[in-house]
Amino acid sequence: MAFNFEDNKKDATVLLQAVAEELQTDDMNKAGRIFRAVLHAIRDRLPVNEAIHFSSQLPIIWKGIYFDQYDTEKVPVKIRDREGWINYIRNKNAFAANNDFQQDDEIMMSFRAVFTALQKCVSKGQLQQVKQSLNQEIQELLEV
């Protein structure tokens, strides 16, 4: 079986376009930065085995981005409240946070948008497991 880079690129692009659509932006760079920041925040909140299982459903290019700078010695991070989660996501996009996340509401909306877009490639059961790994106050950010 041949490895088809074009198919992998297409799969990654389709998912990024879904994120951009949910974010209501045409700026694919911004969508990519936000997607990466939220993915890394989710990844860091999960125990290692769950993080690996979750990643298995991502397009291969996004798997590489997902695992970039992953430190299994520092996870899962303990974030218990909404404010801590918002700040954690903001810090994951430190390079452009001032542009992408000017208000806390933008981070909450971005978290919901990414979670919604992930439904295109991640099973409902896997997303439910991820959601359940988050504290109740963080889970409530997805229910607006």
UniProtKB/TrEMBL annotation:
InterPro entries: DUF2267 (IPR018727), DUF2267_sf (IPR038282). Pfam families: DUF2267. This is DUF2267 domain-containing protein. It comes from Pontibacter populi.
